[in-house]
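Good morning C.,

I know you're traveling, so I'll keep this short. The sequence:
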Amino acid sequence: MITLLVVYLVKLVFFKSHLYLESQDVIKNTSLALIIAISYMQIEAVISVILANVMFINDLHNKREQRDIDDQV
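The tokens, ready to paste straight into the viewer:
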């Protein structure tokens, strides 16, 4: 949330500046690369959490099955 506010503030301040107008293509390409990198990291993190949850559920299932087998004996 704070990062978003900082980005909007920087955009507001530098949008009409000489530096922005000269290097507009570089800034846009850098921003696109940053968005792609952050999106990739976020997707990787979500997949990691999903896999951890699946492994946890499998572990619970295996423990329950083992307990049922032990109770039957």
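Safe travels,
E.
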